[in-house]
Design goal:
Layout (H helix, E strand, L loop, with lengths): L2 H4 L2 E6 L15 E2 L2 E2 H11 L5 E4 L3 H6 L4 E2 L8 H14 L4 E6 L7 H13 L4 E6 L2 E2 L3 E5 L3 H9 L5 H4 L5 E4 L4 H4 L5 H9 L4 E2 L6
Parallel strand pairs: 1-4, 1-6, 4-5, 7-10
Antiparallel strand pairs: 2-3, 2-11, 6-9, 7-8
C-alpha cells in the first residue's frame, strides 16, 4: 500500500484501561525488550499511519517516550469514551476514518491494518470490525468519523458498550481474521500464553 494512501487515516491507541487484572500498567509491559505500547505505535507507523494519538492512560510517561497524547474526554467510562474522544479529535483534523486499537496487542500486524484500509474503500460508510470465533473485536476497528453523532447520542443515553452504541450503524464484519494477530493481554494467563510462545517479558517499573 502506498504510504500517502494510509496517511488519509488517523490512528488512536487506547491506553485508558485500569489494568486491574494485571496488577500493573500493561501498556508499559515489555515483551522481547519493547513496551507493548511502543510495539503498537511502531506497527502503526510501519502501516503508514504516522498521525496517531494515544488516548487516556499515563500521558506524562507516554509523552516522555515521544508520543502525542489525548486526554480521554470521558475517563473511567470504558473504551467507548476513548473511541469518541479519538473520533472527535480526528474529525476536527479533517480525517474521514480512524483506526482505533488497544495498547495491549503484542502481535499487531501491519499487513492486516493495510487490508482493513483497502476494505474501507469498498464500504467507506461502514465500521470495519474483525471477527474471531463469532466475537467482534472492537479494540481493532476502523471507524468513519461521520458516525460520531450517533455514538454521542447513544453515549448520552448511558450506553457504554460499543456493540450497543453501534446498533443503528453500518458494520462490515471482517470474517476469518487471524486470532494470533488480534490476541490481547487482558490477564496474567494471557501473558503466560505469550511466554509459552518463547517471548520474554519485563514488568513496568515506572510506578515503583
Amino acid at each position: 500500500m502506498e504510504e500517502n494512501f494510509a496517511a488519509n487515516f488517523g490512528g488512536a491507541i487506547l491506553a485508558g484501561g485500569q489494568s486491574e487484572r494485571m496488577g500493573f500498567n500493561k501498556a508499559l509491559l515489555e515483551i522481547d525488550g519493547e513496551p507493548l505500547i511502543a510495539k503498537v505505535a511502531r506497527v502503526l507507523n510501519e502501516a503508514g499511519v504516522g498521525n496517531f494519538q494515544i488516548v487516556g492512560g499515563d500521558s506524562a510517561t507516554f509523552t516522555s517516550l515521544g508520543y502525542s497524547c489525548l486526554s480521554d474526554e470521558y475517563p473511567g467510562e470504558g473504551p467507548l469514551g476513548g473511541i469518541i474522544t479519538a473520533l472527535n479529535y480526528f474529525k476536527s483534523q479533517g480525517k474521514k476514518h480512524v483506526l482505533i486499537v488497544a495498547c495491549d496487542l503484542p502481535n499487531i500486524s501491519k499487513n492486516f491494518i493495510n487490508e482493513m484500509f483497502l476494505k474501507s474503500i469498498e464500504e467507506p460508510e461502514s465500521i470495519l470490525v474483525p471477527v474471531v470465533e463469532e466475537h467482534l473485536q472492537w479494540m481493532h476497528a476502523l471507524w468513519p468519523t461521520d458516525v460520531l453523532p450517533v455514538l454521542l447520542k447513544s453515549f448520552s443515553s448511558s450506553n457504554r458498550a460499543p456493540w450497543r452504541a453501534t446498533e443503528d450503524l453500518q458494520i462490515l464484519k471482517i470474517e476469518g481474521a487471524d486470532p494470533h494477530v488480534l490476541f490481547d493481554i487482558d490477564e496474567p494467563d494471557d501473558l503466560t500464553r505469550i511466554l509459552q510462545s518463547g517471548a520474554s517479558w519485563k514488568e513496568d517499573s515506572t510506578e515503583s
